[in-house]
Amino acid sequence: MSNGVMTIARQTVRSVSFNVLNSSGPCFVWIRLVDNRAQHPYADTTYTLRGVRSGFTVEGRTDADGLLRHDLLPVDEYDLDVRGVTEPLETYFLEDEKEHHSEPWMLALPRSTRVRPRG
Q1: Beta bridge partners of residue 82, listed in sequence order
Q2: Separation of CA 48 from chain center
Q3: Which strand ranges, in their side-by-side order, compose the sheet holding 57-61?
Q4: Highest mean pLDDT among 44-48, 88-92, 97-101, 109-113
Q5: Distance CA 66, CA 35 (A)
Q6: Number of other CB atoms surrounding residue 4 within 10 Å
Q7: How many Cβ atoms are within 10 Å of 34's Cβ, its own excluded?
Q8: What is the DSSP pairing of strand 46-51 with strand 27-34?
Q9: Average pLDDT over the chain, rounded to an integer
Q10: pLDDT tens, 54-63?
Q11: What is the C-alpha to C-alpha distance for residues 69 and 89, in angstroms, rounded to an integer?
Q12: pLDDT at 25 over 80
């Protein structure tokens, strides 16, 4: 959130994959997982990040704010598996990190998944 404006990205990224696969790495993803209304983070939630072509896999847990970040990823398209939902992710290059204004991307998961509010 910046200046009171929140952007939630929900898009299929396979159409832009040629840019990723024709570029050099390393890559990173930085995401804040939230419910479909962007009111509650998916705190302490297990996930799997999987390279579509390479099969490179990272498993982890979001932090208390629903954040996950992985740097130095091999160049690939990535899917995020969390709570029975698979979402394609945009992959960015570390050399372009400054362009992202030091903020994670918001990813709202569909209503079919349930989030328990913190507190």
Answers
A1: 85
A2: 11
A3: 57-61, 46-51, 78-82, 85-89
A4: 44-48
A5: 10
A6: 5
A7: 20
A8: unpaired
A9: 75
A10: 999 999 999 9
A11: 12
A12: no
Q: Is the peptide bond before 26 cis (omega within 30 degrees of 0)?
A: yes
Q: For the chain, report the end-to-end CA distance as a whole number of angstroms.
A: 21
Amino acid at 58: V
Q: Is 104 exposed, middle or buried (0-12, 13-18, 19+ CB in 10 A)?
A: middle
Q: Residue 22 contacts by C-beta under 8 Å, 6 or more apart in sequence?
A: none
* Alpha carbons within 13 A on the beta-carbon side of 65: 10
pTM of the model: 0.69
Angle at Cα 67 formed by Cα 14 and Cα 61, nearest 5°? 95
pLDDT score at 92: 76
For residues 65-78, average pLDDT? 91
Mean local confidence (pLDDT), 36-58: 92
